Amino acid sequence: MNAVALQLPQRHPRSFLLLAAVIWLGLYRSLVPLSEAVVAALPVDRASHLGAALQFFLYDTPKVLLLLTAVVFVMGMINSWFTPERTRALLAGRHEGVANVMAASLGIVTPFCSCSAVPLFIGFVQAGVPLGVTLSFLIAAPMVNEVALVLLFGLFGWQIALLYLALGLTVAIVAGWIIGRLKMERHLEDWVRDMPRLRAQAGAMQLTLVERIEAGFAAVRTIVGKVWPYILAGIAIGAAIHGWVPQDFMASFMGRDAWWSVPLAVAIGVPMYTNAAGIIPIVQALLAKGAALGTVLAFMMSVIALSLPEIVILRKVLKPRLIATFVAVVASGILLVGFVFNAVL
């Protein structure tokens, strides 16, 4: 069995990749009905807090792990093409601010939640991209993606979507630039900082497709093998809060005309966990109950860009001081967005 599995990509690497992609897509598309079926088979009420939390956990755990595996595998293959020198030529080789803009812009077209963006962050560090630039991507990927923009456009119009795009990118670019200027690379965890960098050599561009596939599997074994317990812990925290935090409670204070409503909304949003597609319908419901737009959007940004589960996962790759700096800088930007929205709308 193992011998056959290892020889399959050796004989037909393109067919192997296509088959793997089809299987992955089939599994991913079946997550919602499978999670609902499992909850329905359990002796719990689906409409109860426990039922909601279980469905969230059973759906999000395989979803994040599937995304994690796919992203790490692809990054492993990509890293077999691009040496650190070539990667730095694309990002780090440019003016620092320009590299932050490019990294944040790349985040727009990657529809990942904060937790599944972490593997890309690790891949960028491994490729030699500066820390501040990678953090610009890590912030922008979940917060300003095409899912969020399309839903905001459909619900609130192009003006709100454009303003959110501009402010969200500003937060990602400025926060990454500030952290980059602080030179905090020494606060990466040792195993991340000591990951082997790809050597710049002529043969790096002559690898066969099979060798690139093997590089992808090696990246999955190394990174997923270290991070998956933190993912389970983070999603468990998010599922518990997802099932028991009442929406009416949040709406009751988000509509108040008080300066502290924005920081309080951010403080409540940080422990939660979902993606843009999951949080924007909640944003719509909160606004329908009279919540202020700036306060609700600050809450939304904190949930999808600065969540407690993300911080739990990041703890595997960042030391506490760097995590605290990351949280402080991003939270300051989110607070600014909330206050600006409330002031102009």
Chain-wise SSE layout:
Blueprint: H1 2-11, H2 13-29, H3 31-41, H4 49-81, H5 84-90, H6 96-108, H7 114-126, H8 131-143, H9 146-156, H10 158-181, H11 190-193, H12 209-244, H13 247-254, H14 261-269, H15 276-288, H16 293-305, H17 308-314, H18 320-344
Helix pairs in contact: 1-2, 3-4, 4-7, 4-12, 6-8, 6-10, 7-8, 8-10, 9-10, 9-15, 10-18, 12-17, 14-16, 15-16, 16-18
Structural description of this entry:
This protein has helices spanning 2-11, 13-29, 31-41, 49-81, 84-90, 96-108, 114-126, 131-143, 146-156, 158-181, 190-193, 209-244, 247-254, 261-269, 276-288, 293-305, 308-314, 320-344. The chain is mainly α and 345 residues long. It has one domain. The termini are far apart.
Structure, briefly:
With 345 residues, the chain is mostly helical. It has 18 helices and no strands. Residues 1-7 and 198-204 have low confidence and may be disordered.
